[in-house]
Design brief:
This protein is α+β, with helices and mostly antiparallel strands. 30% of the residues lie in helices and 31% in strands. The radius of gyration is 37 Å and the shape is flat. The N and C termini lie far apart (102 Å).
C-alpha cells in the first residue's frame, strides 16, 4: 500500500515536470479583471463613490476593452469623461498590459452594493501579431453604504460653495423693470446633476421666471473629476414701486470627512423700486384734420407691381441659395467621408507623432475600406520594413516597452503606408479595367485581306 501511494506521488510529480498537468503558471497567462474601491472610509448615501476597473492581458491589446455603463439598483452610475489609463504589470513572471477605467457610483439608499457581472469584450495578442478575441466580466466588488444624517438636503460632498450675481444695481430700479439673479453652486466630490435645485421664492408684488439650469464638471488635466457646477438663473419683474426682499438661498450638505452638516448660503437681496418716470406728451387742443389728397391709382398700381416682382426675385434667390447650400453641405460630407480624407488623418497623426490618434485613424480607415484585418492588407501591399514599423507601433501603443527599444519612426511609417495605399489603389484600377469590345469605327476596306486556308 505504501509503495502504491509513493508511486502515485512520483507519477504526479513527473507529469507536472513535463507540463502535462495544469499549473498556476499556465493560468497566469490568461486575461483577468480587477476592481478597486478608490473612495476610502465610511460611505454614505448621496456620496460619489469612485471605483477603478482594470483589465489585463498577456502581451498587448489589439482592440481596447469596451467598458459597459451598467445598472446598479438604488444608485446612479456614470463614467467620467476621459480616456483610460495604460498599465503594465508582471504576474508570476508573465508580463501583462492593462487598461483602467474609472466609474462614479452615487448610492441613493443605504445597504450593501455588489457590481453586476457585466461583460467587457476586448482583443489581444495571445500570439504576437495575431488577434484573439477575449471577454471578461466585472469582478463582484462589494461595498456598504450607510445613511447620511438627516437635514442635509440629501447632499453628501467634500465642500459646497454658492456664488450670487445680479445684472444691475438692485437699488436703482423703476416700476416695470426686471432684475436677473444668477446662483452658481459648486460641489466638490459630487456630480452636477446631483446638486439640488435652488428655491427662487417670489416676493409679494413681483413675478419670477426661472430659466433652465446649466450643468458642468470641473476636471484635472488628466480628466479626473474634481467638482460639479450648477448655474441657475431667475428673472424678477417688479410691476409696482416699493421695497422688496429676495430671500436668501441656502444649501446644506453632509461632509463625510468630518461627519458634520455644513451650510453654504447666498445672502438676501434688498431691492428698491421707484415709480416709473412721467413722460411729457405735450398734449394740446386737437388740430384740424388736413384735407386728404385724391387717391393716385397709377402710383399704387406701380408700387404693387414692384412689390410682386421684388417678392418673386427674393423667393427665386432664396431657392437658389438653399440649393447651393445643400449642394455645398453634401459635397463637404462626401469629402469628409472619402477614403482619401480617412487616410489623410493617418498621415497627420504620423506627422504629430501621436500613437493613440494613429491607432484610431488606422482602425477607422481599415473599416471604411473593408481592409480587415489591417495586418493582412499590409502583408499584401506593404514592404517588409513597413510591416515591421507597424508591429512596433502596435507594441508601443498596447504593449509593455522593452529595454533598449527605439521610438517609432513615424516618418518612415507614413511613407511606407502611403506606398502601400498606392499599390492597393493601382490593384483596384487594374481590376476594374476592361479591354475595348467594339471594332474600329471606320475600317479600311481597301487593305487586302489575308488568304483563307482551304
Amino acid at each position: 500500500m505504501i509503495r502504491a501511494v509513493a508511486g502515485f506521488f512520483v507519477l504526479t510529480f513527473a507529469l507536472l515536470a513535463c507540463g502535462l498537468l495544469p499549473t498556476g503558471a499556465a493560468s497566469a497567462a490568461d486575461p483577468f479583471a480587477r476592481a478597486t474601491l478608490v473612495t476610502k472610509g465610511t460611505l454614505y448615501t448621496g456620496q460619489e463613490v469612485h471605483i477603478d476597473v482594470d483589465v489585463f492581458v498577456p502581451n498587448y491589446f489589439m482592440a481596447p476593452p469596451q467598458f459597459p455603463l451598467f445598472n446598479l439598483s438604488g444608485a446612479v452610475v456614470t463614467i467620467p469623461d476621459g480616456s483610460g489609463v495604460n498599465l503594465n504589470e508582471t504576474v508570476n513572471g508573465e508580463s501583462f498590459s492593462g487598461i483602467r477605467k474609472s466609474y462614479a457610483v452615487t448610492p441613493q439608499t443605504a445597504g450593501d452594493y455588489v457590481l453586476p457581472p457585466a461583460e467587457i469584450p476586448f482583443g489581444f495578442a495571445a500570439v504576437p501579431g495575431q488577434l484573439t478575441q477575449g471577454k471578461l466580466t466585472l469582478p463582484p466588488l462589494k461595498f456598504t453604504v450607510e445613511a447620511a444624517p438627516g437635514g442635509a438636503d440629501g447632499v453628501t460632498a467634500v465642500k459646497v460653495t454658492i456664488d450670487q450675481a445680479l445684472d444691475r444695481d438692485a437699488s436703482g430700479l423703476h416700476a416695470g423693470d426686471a432684475l436677473v439673479r444668477t446662483i452658481t453652486v459648486r460641489a466638490e466630490g459630487l456630480d452636477a446633476m446631483m446638486i439640488p435645485e435652488p428655491n427662487f421664492a417670489s416676493p409679494v408684488g413681483a413675478r419670477v421666471y426661472v430659466h433652465d439650469p446649466a450643468l458642468s464638471e470641473e476636471r484635472t488635466p488628466r480628466g479626473e473629476p474634481v467638482a460639479g457646477v450648477r448655474k441657475d438663473t431667475a428673472t424678477y419683474v417688479f410691476a409696482q414701486a416699493g421695497s422688496y426682499r429676495l430671500p436668501a438661498i441656502a444649501v446644506e450638505w453632509f461632509d463625510p470627512r468630518t461627519g458634520n452638516i455644513e451650510q453654504a448660503e447666498a445672502p438676501m437681496v434688498a431691492v428698491t423700486v421707484a415709480a416709473a418716470p412721467t413722460v411729457d406728451t405735450g398734449l394740446g387742443p386737437p388740430a384740424p384734420e388736413p384735407e386728404k389728397p385724391p387717391f393716385d391709382w397709377r402710383l399704387w398700381a406701380g408700387v404693387a407691381a414692384a412689390t410682386i416682382v421684388a417678392t418673386a426675385v427674393i423667393r427665386l434667390a432664396a431657392q437658389l441659395l438653399s440649393r447651393a447650400e445643400a449642394w455645398g453641405e453634401a459635397y463637404h460630407r462626401r469629402r469628409l467621408d472619402s477614403e482619401r480624407e480617412y487616410f489623410r488623418r493617418i498621415e497627420q497623426a504620423c506627422r504629430d507623432h501621436d500613437l493613440t490618434r494613429l491607432g484610431r485613424a488606422l482602425d477607422a480607415w481599415s473599416r471604411k475600406t473593408g481592409n480587415l484585418p489591417l495586418s493582412r492588407w499590409l502583408d499584401r501591399f506593404a514592404d517588409t520594413a513597413t510591416q515591421r514599423l507597424f508591429a512596433e507601433h502596435q507594441r508601443a501603443l498596447y504593449g509593455k516597452p522593452s529595454e533598449g527599444r527605439t521610438t517609432t519612426d513615424f516618418g518612415a511609417l507614413r511613407r511606407g503606408l502611403s506606398t502601400a495605399r498606392r499599390n492597393w489603389l493601382r490593384s483596384h484600377l487594374s481590376a476594374t479595367a476592361r479591354p475595348a469590345a467594339l471594332p474600329p469605327l471606320n475600317p479600311d476596306f481597301a487593305r487586302p485581306r489575308p488568304p483563307v486556308a482551304s
